[in-house]
Amino acid sequence: MSVANLKSDHVDRILTKALSGERLTLEDGIALYESNDLVKLGAAAKQVMQRLHPDNIVTFVVNRNINYTNVCDTYCRFCAFYRPEGHPEAYVLSDEIIFQKIQETIDIGGEGSEILMQGGTHPGLPFSYYTDLLKKIKERFNITMHSFSAAEIWKMVAVSGLSLEEVIRQLKEAGLDSIPGGGAEILDDRIRLKISKLKESWVKWMEVHDTAHRLGMHTTATMVIGFGEGYEERILHMIRVREQQDKTGGFTAFIPWTYQPDNTALKGKRATAVEYLKTVAIARLMLDNINNIQASWVTMGPKIGQASLEFGCNDMGSTMIEENVVSAAGATHSMTKQDLIRLIRDAGRTPARRNTYYKILETY
Ligand code: SF4
Predict the structure, then answer these.
(1) Is the CB of 151 under 6 A from ligand 1?
(2) N or C end of the chain: which has fewer CB within 10 A?
(3) How high is the pLDDT of residue 331?
(4) Distance between alpha carbon 25 and the CA centroid of its chain, in Å?
(5) pLDDT per residue over 202-253, tens digit each?
């Protein structure tokens, strides 16, 4: 038997294992990445997804990203969004502008349900800035605050002198509902040191999510590929998320996307569609305890986003009324709600609007 046939048999055995509900190992995940049979990986991932979501529904949320500040002292080499304090383009949005953006989100047919507020790690903002802002937002609006990623939360710990648990507790009391998974990039320190050496270690990223879960909050987990990481690092990332999910069950979704190199210090090349779709499929097969895998049409474009529904995704993310972070690095795709609905329908699935917790609000 040829080497190619032996490899193909090996991949078949791994896929059979995944389809029978057996957990995949690090070695299994690496073998799947080494396989060139994208269609076979996609078919298995879709089968696993259909078992979890037999209703044929693909969800999306109507939300808005608000980047309240671009001031950041973490200086990630892959980031084209941040500006150092004092830079002529540095900004902190006024409360009024933030309120206006939230009102506009709610006004979209009364369907906007979530604000994803994220910024840089601003060294000059006191902890009370965040808690006061959340309270003011909650006094004025009925909206879910899915906001502040791990790096910002560690900055709040640093400026306040409080413990991580106390910071998250106070954010929750002030109105924070859920924490986005931004800043995970690759959950392994070799690559983190290369791309953002001032950012917290992967263990500290996880500590934020573990603490939030234990305090009763849901969070999401993300993964960014294309920094020059190896297959082993990608699979370790997935296994670390899976282990955390075993402990707390607090992740609502896993959201992989690709590094956008334009205007960044790191530079490099965009991951290809094959790399992305393979990652989506492998994530669905490795992450047997996470219900929702989100497509990233914002970085991959609507067509690859739609194709990812054949590779295990069951969610199209958001209508993304505003996005400033990946667009600064060259991802400039945009879609209306009607475009999203059409893409989902054309893929033979039923579109549905959801809330932050993946509860279906309306089907179309
Ligand atoms: S990715 Fe986030 S933490 Fe890193 S430089 Fe950009 S804004 Fe700052």
Answers:
(1) yes
(2) N
(3) 66
(4) 23
(5) 999 999 999 999 999 999 999 999 999 999 999 999 999 999 999 999 999 9
Give me the mean pLDDT over the 158-167 stretch. 98
Q: Supply angle C-alpha 20, 234, 18, rounded to 5.
A: 5
- Could you tell me if the CB of 196 is within 6 A of ligand 1? yes
So what's the pLDDT on residue 189?
96
Contact 98, 137 (CB under 8 A): yes
What is the residue extent of each domain of the chain? 40-363
Structure tokens at 272: 């290809």
C-beta 121 within 6 A of ligand 1: yes
CA 78 to centroid of ligand 1, rounded, Å: 8
Distance (Å, whole) CA 40 – CA 35 = 9
Q: Name which CATH class applies to 40-363.
A: alpha beta
**Virtual CA dihedral for 305, 311, 312, 318, nearest 10 degrees?**
0
**In ligand 1, which atom is closest to the CA atom of 78?**
1
Q: How many CB atoms lie within 10 A of CB 336?
A: 10
Cβ contact 349:337 at 8 Å: no
- The better pLDDT of the pair 318, 160 is held by 160
Angle of CA points 278, 283, 285, to nearest 5°? 95
| Ligand 1 centroid to residue 277 C-alpha, Å | 26
Q: pLDDT tens digits for 301-313?
A: 999 999 999 999 9
